[in-house]
Every structure is written in structure tokens, then in C-alpha cells.
Amino acid sequence: MAKVWVYCWDHVRGGEGASWGHSSLQIEGGAYISWWPSNDEERNYTVNAKKNPTLAKIMRTFIGTTNVYKVKHRCNPTLQADVHQEGRAADDVIEIAEGVLDTNKISLWWKGYEYEKASYHTIKKNCSTTVIRALRAGGSDKAMKTVSVDWFSKRGGWEPTDIMAYLRQMNRALGDAKVNLRGQAATTPPRRNSMVQGTGVAMCEAHGEPLLTCGSC
Known about the structure:
The protein is an alpha+beta fold. It has helices at 53-63, 79-86, 103-113, 127-137, 150-153, 160-174; strands at residues 4-9, 22-27, 32-33, 35-37, 44-45, 69-75, 92-96, 119-121, 179-180, 194-196, 201-204, 209-210. A hairpin with a 4-residue loop joins β2 and β3 (32-33). α3 (103-113) crosses α4 (127-137).
């Protein structure tokens, strides 16, 4: 058994710094789980908005976007890589205490999930659906004592906000000592301090902040 950290980046709408948001999971001394769409493969869209504007309008009404596609996946190997790609540290850092989740089962699940030709899907298999599956592989549902947030996320797929809602439920059931929602107090296992490519800035990989100003070190 080991600790687990969950990282969530908020969805930022429009303008400079716009971002879909992201969720990832770190097993203490083990895998960093961060699911992304490949940049090198052709994306297969569910609806072509230009060819089928009416159908696209219906889709946008129901799930809020027409940007629904399937493509081969890729994984960012470290928190530092995610911080670099998102352009900022995670908005939420959640520390799950040792013994709450069966990390051996998460690791075993991950070995079967992350195979070379595995796909990414905007709704069915995105970063957040991957994180919730990892949590559940470790037994997180055993802590749920209220109505599952699945009811609120099935139409549009899981998002970072859904992950946070789920973790808040775990926190209410288990308490702060076992599910720490306070990002400033959370720590991650130290790995190595790396330069962010193209910036010359050394990053604290443990906390995803510039090394010289990292307030958690």
C-alpha cells in the first residue's frame, strides 16, 4: 500500500490561457497516470460540424461541445511534464493517505489499461475517466456513502470538476486525515528537479512549481 496524489487543472474558457483542463494521478513510488490524445495521429470525429451542422447543433446542446473524437493515446510521464503542458501548476492537489486505496490493484489495472494501441476519446476515455477508473480500481467506491456523482457527469463525460466532486465525497466520508483536499498542504514523492524545456527554468517536480520559489519544499 502507498499514498496517492490526484492533480486537477481547471477548465479555462476562451481567451489567453484557454484550456480544457486535466486530471492525473500519482502513486507513491510508482506510476504517474496522465492520459492525453496523441498529436501525431488523425482524429476521428463523431460529428463533422461542417458537413452536418444540424447534428452538430444537437450535440452541442446536449453535451456542450462538438469536439468529440477518438485517437490513439499518449501519456505524460511526470507531473513536471503536465505542468509544462498546462502552463501552470495544478489548481487542486489531493493527497490520499496510505491504506485508503489498494495501490497494487491500481498498478495492475494500469498495466492492462495503458497498452501501446490504446485509444483516447473525448468523453469515454479522457484524462478524467482514466483517473476515476484508477481510483475505483483501488477501491475508492467503498468510501462512498452518498449519491454518486456519476448522475451528474454521464452526458458529457467525466471532467476535472467531477473528479473533485467525487473526492469531496470521499473526504466527507473519511475525513481530512485520509483524503486531504488542501492543495497547499499536500506533498508528493520527490523524484528529480528538471528544466522546463525551452524556458531555462528549473522546476520542482515533486510540487510542479519553479524550484527557487516552491513554497512546499
